[in-house]
Amino acid sequence: MNHDQCVGTNDLERNQIVIVAMSGAALLTFAGPSDVFMQADKILRLSGVRHGYDVRIVSPTANKKIISDIGIEINCTHSAMEIEGPVDTLIIAGNDSKGLKNPEYNDFFNWLSSVTENNRRRIASVCGGAFVLARAGLLDGRKATTHWDMSERLKKEYPLVQVDPNAFYTTDGNIYTSGGVSSGIDLALALVEEDHGKDIAIQVARRLVFYLNRPGFQIQFANLLPAYESSNIAAKLLTWFNENLHKPLDVVRIADHVNMSTRNFTRVFHKQTGMPPAKFIEKLRIEMARKYLEDTDMSLENVAEKCGLGGLVSMRRTFLRHLMTTPSDYRRAFRTSLKAVNTV
Questions:
Q1: Domain tally, the chain
Q2: Phi/psi at 55 (nearest 5 deg)?
Q3: Domain ranges, residue 337
């Protein structure tokens, strides 16, 4: 990173990548994309290509400080508001969701709201950075994503944004958004591929020991069922459900267990959980199966049987419908890390 260049100047042979690291962000939200572009620049230079990348990490506040959640303080050479020259790609990395309305961000949001296609070729976000772009009005009417655990909040707070909670990253015009923290690496690799082709992007991915196109979707990480309050009927039944997942659990049997009529139970359950009993049970079976796949060596056949998912074909279809992956692929991706290493 060239910190000696004056603000607003531009190396005509290298595209300017400006990464705004929001306070409170995980280090990987800005360090990951930065490493991708820096590695790409090295590879391009070795290949004799002069149009690489000049990467700068800047702060969103005038004091030029970034405070991470783990207490690390980073002093930047510049704040975002001091960037005046041509910027190829502007990336907002993470956000301090507790403090975006803090007056110290006012100048930054005024600056960000003035960003257009005329002075920035691409604008992107990593993880909670989508909230920053949304507050600046840059995502109105556009498709976007953020960390799967924050997607519902993004929908609620910014209803004009078309939120896709499943994708690792999305593109809508010149606006790019990425999901969870590590998804910033996925997005940065995609931008390198867009600029310089697949071969260069593959070389960068190999150096970082990362997928060029990571298999799966964010939905594989999310819990299919929310946490319910203790007074909720689903929470009251959860232990009994888990003990009986291997058995048929039709609505008649469940209603009998709680001494309610089938009609009344169905009405109350749907009202309190937002879904019919059958859908809840199916999701609960998948959640249990995920734990067996992650933490045990139990055969797929036994997992399907213990969770009441029928045979292998039925379990595979159910996983594909809810998680967009198969049980065997899920196990390979999410099984206990050390166990996976020891069985290679």
A1: 2
A2: -105, 135
A3: 233-342
